[in-house]
Structure formats: C-alpha cells, structure tokens
Design a protein that fits this description.
The protein is mostly helical. The protein has 19 helices and two strands.
Length: about 500
C-alpha cells in the first residue's frame, strides 16, 4: 500500500523547497515559543527584577504575537513581500536570542520579547497562508506537518536551556551567601510560571533577592539557540534566490508566477490582514454565510487554542493543589506529557488527514476533547487518570487548529481572509482564556480550572455543529448562484 498517492507525491516534489522552508520557519516559531518558561527565573536574576516585574515579559510576548498575527496578512500581496517578511522575522528571532543576554533591565527585555512576539505572529500567518495557497484542497496533510514543527522547536528549546539553568540561587547577597531557596523550590517556581501571573501572591514565601552578585550562565543557552535558528533565515534566503526574487538573481521569469486555479488570486491578494478584511470593498456582494463561517471558525479556534494555553499554563498548579497533591517533580512532567502528545498527535494526523475527510477528523477530535474533559471532571481525585487524560487530550486537540484552517479555506474556495482571521482568533483565545482561568483560580481555587476547560470544549463542539450546517448552506447558495449565472448566459431561441 502506498503511503501517498501519485498526485500528492507529485505536488510535494514540485513544491518541496517551499514546503521545507515554511516548515522550518515554524520550527523557529516553536523555538521562540517555549524558552521563556524554563529561563524566566534566570532572566529575573539577570535583570535583577522582582517576580512580578519579570512576568510582564510573558504579557509583552503574547500581546505582540497577537498584533503580528493580525498584520501578517498585509505581507501577502506578492511572493517577494511574503518571503522577505519571513526572512526578516526569522532573522529577528536569532537577533533577539543573541541580545537577550545583554538586556540587564526588565524593560529592555520586554522590548526584545515584544520584537520576538511580533515576528512570531507574522510567521504564523504567512506560513499558514502560503502553504494553503500551494496545496489548496490537499493542504490539510501539509498543515499537520507544519504545526508539528512548532512542537519540535518547543522540544529543542528547553533541552538547550536546561544545562545552563541555575540549580540554586542565581543572585548572591552582599555577604556572598546564597538565599534559602532550594533546587526543588526553583523547579516549582519555573513550573508555576508557565504563562500565568495569577498566583504570584502565593510565591512570597520564596526569598528571591534582587540585589547582589548575578551568577547565572543562561546567556550561553540563548547564544546556542541563536546559532540553531540561523539556518532558518538562510533557508528563506535560499528559496528567494531559487525563485529569482533577489536583486542579484537572474533576470529570467520568476518560477512561482504559476497559473492560479479559478477563483484564486495568483498573488494571494485575497489573504490580507484582519483589519483590511473589514474594508467595504472586501465585504460588498458577499453572502451572509461567508461572514458567519469566518466568525464560527474564529470562535472555534479561540476556544480550542485557548484550552491549549490554559491547560499548559495551569495543569501544574492544579496537580500540586488539593485534592491531588501530586509531588512537584512528578507534576512537572505533566506539561511535557501534554506537549509531547500534541506533537505525536500532529505526526499521526499527517497520515489521518490523507485517509479521512477533514470534517470527519475535526468531528472526532472535538468529541474526543469534550469526552476527555468530562472524564477528568468525574475522576478529578485520580492521579493516574490525570496523566492518562492529559496524554489523550493532547492527542485529540492536536489536529484541530491545522485542520480547521484547511477546512475553512476549502469551504470559502481559498479567497477572502480566513487564515488571517482564524490565526488571530486563535492567538486571542490563547491569551484571553489564560487570563480568565487565572482569575477564576485566584478567586475560586483550582477545581474550576477543569470546569472552564470543559465548558469551552462543549462550546467548541456545539459551534462546530453550527459550522457544518452553515457550510452546507453556503455551498448550496454557491451552487444555486453558479446555476443562475449559467442560465442567464444561455442564448434564448427566437421564435
């Protein structure tokens, strides 16, 4: 049995350079996404800031990632502008890695992370859009692989950082004695600080000093990550040279000025930024279902990516709190289990996307996410089931984002602003649901954490049912419109 049929193999052979380049920029995205959690305490020492001050760096990155996603579509007018944006953004990520060790003030560090977040957001939108434009109806398979590279980058980043993290205090007081925080206390803090600010009032028992001699070696980790990331902008530059888009390239016709399929702008001008989607010229003449599909697709990714962000950010806090009271070291593995299962799920989805329709894959994934959350609520006192449920949840939710992007673009015939809207909605959900869940945990305790995720999964599943109904109505309207146009174009026979 062949793994891929001849048509898909032919497409991959034709576009392998572009495909590998877009996959590599998502590796760069993942590399930048995952380093902050493990290194945040060493960065606190480097900047000699308080825990409250350093956590603003998380907010800076997330806010500008969202802004970058919103404006990323503006670079889609030509292949030159989109590849140029990818080159500069991936180079900026290497540059940020290189200058982070020189940021001795928390404000400078926040500015650096804002630049990295902006670059990540632009990469997120452009890579998704370009891959959809290349493969169109076959995009789901390659989108799963694209999003898998985020997991690979997120896996490499903590592994590089780990040998250079401080095992004890990284600030020595004036009398050259270390503070009283033990290595286990620091591990607990690192796990608790993954994407949240709501529990800082519970961390005052750890004497983290801000004055003294800084003895951290984390700078080497960032310089190594800068070197690891450098081949990515080089790969983008090589693709630009191959497509003859650079000033010193040959003057022969550009390779990617290929013929576009009916209904698709060859330069991708339908894929503009979120704000340009609201332009009256863009909205004129669209059926109501066109807007409803955008809104529903965005809402589904708002909820599902929000679940990923909230679960990754708070599962450790939930595990070490009553009634589970799992040990700190064991609970620290939960986040790794969750992200590893997401990466494994996306690898498996490459094959599943080839074998099953995207709508079937999405239905199974969302039903699985909802059932797992219900079981986690029922067996909320079971330590073993928390690990099993975390693993299964990662497998189920892994394919939702890439599948939803490919499915929505297919429904809308690859014209309009679907990818920009959906990527921006996903980033917004990831940030907002973390804030919501953090506020609930702060006021009500940890059990409502699972309740919030369960309610979000039910809402996402319900909205997907509405999406499927709207999609059917939309296709019917398009069919009727095409039939009406064909009838109007037929010459009438004279008597």
């Amino acid at each position: 049995m062949q793994l891929l049929d001849e048509r898909i193999r032919s497409l991959l052979q034709r576009h392998w350079r572009q495909t590998l380049t877009y996959w590599s920029v998502f590796f760069s995205f993942g590399l930048c996404l995952a380093f902050l959690g493990p290194t945040v305490l060493d960065l606190r020492c480097q900047t000699q800031s308080s825990l409250q001050q350093i956590t603003w760096v998380f907010f800076s990155q997330q806010l500008f990632l969202l802004l970058g996603s919103s404006i990323g579509g503006l670079f889609q007018k030509t292949l030159l502008s989109s590849l140029s944006a990818l080159f500069f953004c991936t180079f900026i990520i290497s540059l940020v890695f290189a200058i982070i060790p020189l940021c001795y003030d928390v404000i400078l560090l926040s500015v650096a992370m804002a630049l990295a977040g902006q670059a990540m957001g632009v990469i997120d939108t452009i890579a998704n859009v370009e891959l959809v434009k290349l493969y169109q109806k076959d995009a789901a398979i390659f989108m799963q692989a694209l999003h898998c590279f985020i997991g690979l980058g997120a896996l490499v980043s903590p592994l590089v950082a780990d040998p250079f993290l401080a095992e004890d205090s990284c600030i020595l007081e004036a009398n050259w004695t270390a503070n009283t925080s033990s290595p286990s206390d620091l591990d607990h803090l690192r796990s608790s600080l993954v994407g949240q600010r709501a529990e800082l009032h519970n961390m005052s028992q750890y004497p983290l000093h801000t004055k003294g001699v800084v003895v951290t070696r984390v700078s080497y980790a960032f310089w190594i990550m800068a070197l690891i990331n450098l081949p990515v902008p080089a790969a983008v530059l090589a693709l630009m040279n191959h497509e003859r888009l650079l000033p010193w390239s040959h003057k022969s016709p550009r390779l990617l000025n290929r013929e576009a399929p009916p209904g698709l702008d060859p330069l991708g001008q339908g894929h503009r930024g979120v704000f340009s989607c609201c332009h009256p010229a863009e909205l004129r003449g669209r059926p109501a279902t066109y807007f409803v599909i955008h809104a529903l697709g965005g809402a589904i990714l708002f909820l599902t990516d929000g679940i990923i962000g909230a679960y990754a950010g708070f599962i450790y806090t939930y595990a070490v709190s009553p009634p589970l009271l799992i040990g700190r070291k064991t609970a620290g593995c939960l986040n790794s289990v969750f992200w590893a299962s997401i990466t494994a799920g996306r690898l498996a989805s490459i094959y599943l996307s080839y074998r099953f329709p995207t709508a079937v894959l999405l239905t199974a994934s969302l039903v699985g996410v909802t059932l797992v959350h219900c079981l986690l609520l029922i067996f909320y006192t079971s330590n073993v089931f928390l690990f099993i449920g975390t693993c299964v949840l990662g497998l189920c939710i892994s394919s939702v984002s890439p599948s939803m992007l490919a499915f929505t673009e297919d429904v809308l015939n690859y014209q309009g602003c679907a990818t920009s809207v959906l990527v921006t909605s996903a980033g917004t959900g990831e940030m907002m649901l973390q804030l919501l869940v953090g506020s609930v945990i702060h006021s009500q305790g940890t059990y409502p954490f699972l309740l919030c995720c369960t309610v979000s999964s039910f809402m996402g599943s319900f909205l997907f049912l509405v999406f499927l109904y709207t999609e059917r109505v939309h296709r019917k309207q398009l069919t009727e419109s095409l039939q009406g146009t064909a009838m109007a174009g037929k010459p009438t026979s004279g008597s």
